[in-house]
Amino acid sequence: MSHFETDAIRINASKSNQREHSAPLYLTSSFTFDSAEEARAMFAEEIQGNIYSRYANPNSSELIDKVCAAEGTEDGIATASGMAAMFGSMAALLQQGDHILASRSLFGSTHQLLTRVFPKWGISSTYGDISDISNWEKLVQPNTKMLFIETPSNPGLEIIDLEWVGQFAAAHNLILVVDNCFATPYLQQPAKWGAHIVTHSATKFIDGQGRVLGGLILGKKELIQEVQFFARHTGPSISPFNAWILAKSMETLAVRMDRHCENALAVAKYFQDSTDLDFVKYPFLKSHPQYDLAKKQMKHGGGIITLTLKGGISRAQKFIDQLQMISVTANLGDSRSIITHPASTTHSKLTEEEREKVGISDGLIRLSVGLEHQEDIIKDVERALEKSR
Ligand SMILES: *Cc1c(COP(=O)(O)O)cnc(C)c1O
After folding, report:
1. Do 222 and 286 reside in the same domain of the chain?
2. pTM of the model
3. Whose CA is nearest to atom 4 of ligand 1?
4. Bridge partners, 208 (sequence order)
5. What is the pLDDT of residues 293-339, one digit of tens each?
6. Would the CB of 86 count as within 6 Å of ligand 1?
7. How many C-beta atoms lie closer than 10 Å to residue 289's C-beta?
8. Domain stop point among 250, 275, 309
9. In angstroms, what is the span from residue 182 Cα to ligand 1's centroid?
10. For the chain, how many structural domains are there in total?
11. Do 193 and 284 belong to one domain?
């Protein structure tokens, strides 16, 4: 195929007879058949074609084709949200009695799925700590079927060695699922390292402007067929409008990520020199404990920084309240820089002990660095740091 940028722009829904240049929005629930025989043959899957937007729609198909080219995956489905993708990837491929091995540092709602939703259906899970991967051998049970990881993790920015995890999954015959939300396919392609399934919250960097929710499940054809069957009959489908937005967003992902990463590195370096901080974490800062690994498997360091201010939670709150430009909200991967306090928001449903284990201290702050001019981002941070002293 062509380069990343070219595929992301040039893979398009086939032209309609209106000869449009940019793919139109197909707001239609169903598609017509030329004959009763064609309808029968399409339902029987003897011929391919759109039937009903719960199954497929030209806008969702375009999005899937673009992201598959970016990830190097064979096929996929698009879902209404990232969580529908996380849930669907597990629910479609597992059954009662199966066991999931997962890295402990996971998005808050994914953690809820593993600990509160799937146990109701007899699917159990165990967490592995990434600081102790030699121990993971012992965590594999006879009924372990799936290995689910997130790298870099939200919000701890822990990095898992994709080469190692790919070999580990193959050696134990596990389905390896990687939530690639933080890196995006522009920075890292887990399928290259042996991931069977790659999931996304497209809500984040893929949309990139904080507009719509969406998710993706991508991977090997034979697994995706199971996922398609599951989705077709349970209905987590993305709306054509959201798919249209996200397919357009893919066209600018590369240039946006370059700037997110450039800005984030500059802001991380600013924090590194500050005496107001206990620590700052960013994958491409030499002080990140897995800097070498980040360099090996990621093109750039990503758009997210985490930090802890001296003075703990009260200082963190003061700092957040003093920001003038940076938004206080729970999203990330937006053109606008965003600050979040995970312990009281995105990860508040975890117990204190669970948060401690994944490095979410009470004072931890997550900064999603946007596309504003980096001098203005730093100026806002600098002012708020001063005012919070
Ligand atoms: C946001 C997020 C999700 C959930 O995605 P939604 O689109 O909000 O449903 C899953 N995983 C990670 C890593 C996320 O950041």
Report:
1. no
2. 0.96
3. 82
4. none
5. 999 999 999 999 999 999 888 999 999 999 999 999 999 999 999 99
6. yes
7. 12
8. 250
9. 9
10. 2
11. no
